[in-house]
Amino acid sequence: QVQLVESGGGLVQAGGSLRLSCAASGRTFSTYAMGWFRQAPGKEREFVAGIDWSGSSTYYEDSVKGRFTISRDNAKNTAYLQMNSLKPEDTAVYFCAAASYAPTVVTGTYDYWGQGTQVTVSS
Fold first, then answer.
1. Choosing a second label site near 106 at 20 to 30 A (CA), which of 40, 52, 60, 121?
2. Alpha-carbon torsion (63, 89, 6, 10), positive or negative
3. Which residues in the chain come in under a pLDDT of 70?
4. Within 13 Å and on the Cβ side, how many CA atoms surround 40?
5. Phi and psi (nearest 5°) for 31?
6. Is 99 within 8 Å of 109 (Cβ atoms)?
7. Distance separating alpha carbons of residues 4 and 98, to the nearest angstrom
8. How far apart are CA 17 and CA 8, in angstroms?
9. In three state form, how does the secondary structure of 72-85 look?
């Protein structure tokens, strides 16, 4: 069992930055791939970024490439999403999730989810 808690969301102006954190409970965090997803009002939850268990492989949705960076610190049981050059269209609730295998863009392949943290980017 893994419990995930996101933090770091907030209100920021366009062009600004935020760093989201995802703190995991349990001693098996390092065995899970991690993903970040987001969901805007009236839209489906979409993949943003993923990272394998070791941190050596990362994946990004096209619209965030070059702006967002996913990372993890297995010693701290925490995953991160550094978001730079934020745009109003990045406004959404951001969720972290843990997958037993490789990170994918499919929500159904993730075993555990956090409760989400709101990110609002003003123009």
1. 121
2. positive
3. none
4. 9
5. -90, -5
6. yes
7. 8
8. 11
9. EECCCCEEEEEECC
Return the structure tokens found at 78. Answer: 């925490």
Structure tokens at 70: 């996913």
Give the DSSP H or E segment for 68: strand 68-73
pLDDT of residue 82: 98
Distance of CA 19 to the CA centre of its chain: 10
Place of tokens 């295998």: 101
How far, in Å, are 16, 27, 31, 75, 118 from residue 94 at the CA level? 17, 24, 22, 23, 6
Instruction: Specify the amino acid at residue 27.
Output: R
User: Which sign, positive or negative, has the C-alpha torsion 54, 83, 119, 104?
Assistant: negative
Q: Are 33 and 49 in contact (CB under 8 A)?
A: no
Residue 33 is encoded by which pair of tokens?
């791939």
User: Which residues, other chains included, contact 100 with Cβ-Cβ below 8 Å and sequence gap of 6+?
Assistant: 31, 32, 33, 111
Q: What is the total residue count of the chain?
A: 123
21, 84, 123 from 95: Cα distances, Å? 10, 17, 23
Tell me, what's the pLDDT at 35? 98
